[in-house]
Amino acid sequence: MNATCDDGSPPGAINLGINETIKCTFENYKTNAVIGNIAVNETGYVLANTQNNLLYDINGTESQNGPPNDITIVNTTNDQNSIIKKISMAPFASGMALDNVTQRLYVGIDAVYIGDSNEVQVIDTLNNTLIKTFNDSNSFGYPIEVDYKVNKAYLDFETVNQTGSFYYVDIFNTTNDNFNYITSAGGHFAQLPYDIKANELTGRIYADTADGGIEVINATGNNLITDITANGDASSYLAINDLTNRLYAPGIACWCIYDIDIKVGSPTENQIVSKLVPPGNPGVYSIRYLDVNEQTNLVYAVVNTVSSEDLWVVDPTTNSTVSITPIVTNLSSPNWGNISVNPQTHRAYVVDVNGTRSIDVISIK
What we know:
mainly beta, Methylamine Dehydrogenase, Chain H, 2 domains, four-stranded antiparallel beta sheet, 30 strands, 0% helix, globular
């Protein structure tokens, strides 16, 4: 249940003056259940594999003196949530991307902070073994994205000239387990990209950055197509629905999610068509991490309020809230944990960074 009054009064303590009219709105939302918790060591980033119901978690601190980085592989079938293997990784493992055809998991290693070269490590998820490591002194290890239709991977790259630093998207060929540099695209960003997402049906790549814009890259021609300005506000992590041709980007200033039309040839292509806003006035710190269920066309967002972290599920077609589920309460600072949804098992996995440093499991039926 959510209730708001147009004068800002709490619904249970309305301060009504003489001849004053106050309108209060009551909205009843579904609350999903937090059904489990997966204990891992220093969790940082999760990714659900919908083909085998395995969950991959990067854990370990970004420090030479902290716990070692590894990929923890969790069997989530029938909510077993049992750890079946841990694969040791290089320090500063920062992000993952899965090739759904070859079942290769690409892990970006952001090791420049410790004076080492950045790397991409490749895991064969069919037998859960580390098969290759590629050194790359130019690109950062994160964000990373793969497009199985064109056998390419995408990383961000910094170049420095007389006017300052600019960031590009480096493009690599991943055919036959290679990782060969092809070219760079973009270069309009003066700050590090937060996220890269691929629409494998249209061959478009979308790179979001702290500049608050999104670059659109042609995966076939490896060239920059255009920029989506998003009011200079879309500076966080992206979610994409290939089937509906929609891109979702959290807005920092608007406390909303930008709903962007990315259908090629549409009159509103690469334009914001609506804003998805959480109900009421939750005092939102940030909406940073998103995921989308392409089967139901629902968007899942981790929302940090003044004192809690909630899972907000919104239907972008009707711009209406489906459910709000409290995950972590009594927060003293925002919990920057990411989310990964498995539509096959109807589960959402949310990283708890500030609390138990584990993975919360939420039923989303």
